[in-house]
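Quarterly update from the structural biology core.
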Amino acid sequence: MQKRASEARKKQKVIEVKEIKLRPNIDSHDYDVKMRAVQKFLAAGDKVKITLRFRGREMAHVDLGSQLLARVREDIDETAKIEAEPKMEGRQMVMVIAPK
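Predicted structure, tokenized:
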């Protein structure tokens, strides 16, 4: 029984939570680079926490951050599911996605 338990422990995959940090006014190429990293993490079977940081006057434009996270949601729709909807936590908006 102990041998079977140790074999099961060897074969199990530990799911890590990787984090990608974005800003509301990110450029298109920078966004593409970040999304490639997200796809790589999802392909490896890890969850991804997307953190959108607001600094200074950006707090007045939280709607821009919501639009960016909606764009992320559309881009990863076929490969992942939303585990935690976007929500504000102080000065940052957080969303968690997991592989399908």
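The helical segments are 2-11, 28-43, 62-75.
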